[in-house]
Design brief:
The complex is a heterodimer. The longest helix of chain A is centred in the last third of the chain and has 16 residues, at 52-67. Chain A is mainly alpha-helical. Chain A has 3 helices and no strands. Chain A has helices at residues 19-29, 35-45, 52-67. By secondary structure, chain B is mainly α. Chain B has helices at residues 3-35, 40-64, 84-87. In chain B, α1 packs antiparallel against α2 (40-64). The longest helix of chain B has 33 residues, at 3-35. Chain B is elongated and about 45 Å long. The chains are: A mainly alpha, B mainly alpha. The A-B interface holds A 3-13, 53, 56-57, 60-61, 64 and B 16-17, 19-20, 23-24, 27, 30-31, 34-35, 37, 66-70, 78, 83-85, 87-90.
């Protein structure tokens, strides 16, 4: 169960725009090694974990990646 | 723009930044505690920061509106702009 919190996780202060860097950063989100993919993998894998630590860590890191 | 609303925006952002900092620390400690659940020092820090974050969040919400949909108020200012991706920094 998730709640949306109406604030950024980390403040932003872009002093100089850099489209090349932006392109690089955006590519981290999508695609086969992107964070969204990783998030969904962790969130599905948590159901097959044998102990509570593993379930917790996959749940929480999956959530963290989702937030990214 | 009068000085009053400038001042308001600065303290709003300061309060929000403090909340964000405590929430970030809580989040990090939580991830650590998932694999080190008996680290009492980490638990202590987590509890301290969590209480701080909750206290400041209550303060913020009363002054500036909801941070989650759970916050009860007479008006539904949840929909008010700006949203975080429009706000500039926070």
């Amino acid at each position: 169960m998730y709640y949306y919190v109406k604030s950024l996780q980390y403040p932003i202060n872009i002093r100089r725009r850099n489209p090349m860097l932006a392109k690089n950063i955006i590519s981290q989100y999508g695609g086969p090694d992107g964070e969204l993919g990783a998030s969904l993998r962790y969130l599905s894998q948590r159901f097959g974990m044998p102990d509570q630590k593993s379930k917790a860590i996959l749940n929480d890191i999956g959530t963290e990646e989702y937030v990214h | 723009m009068n000085n009053c609303s400038c001042q308001n925006n600065r303290s709003r952002n300061e309060l929000l930044q403090e909340i964000m900092a405590y929430n970030f620390a809580v989040n990090d400690l939580a991830l650590y505690l998932d694999t080190h659940p008996s680290d009492s020092k980490a638990i202590c820090l987590h509890n301290e920061y969590s209480q701080k974050a909750n206290k400041l969040t209550n303060e913020y919400q009363k002054l500036y509106g909801p941070l989650t949909i759970n916050f009860a108020s007479e008006n539904w200012n949840w929909i008010d702009e700006p949203w975080p991706w429009e706000r500039g920094a926070y």
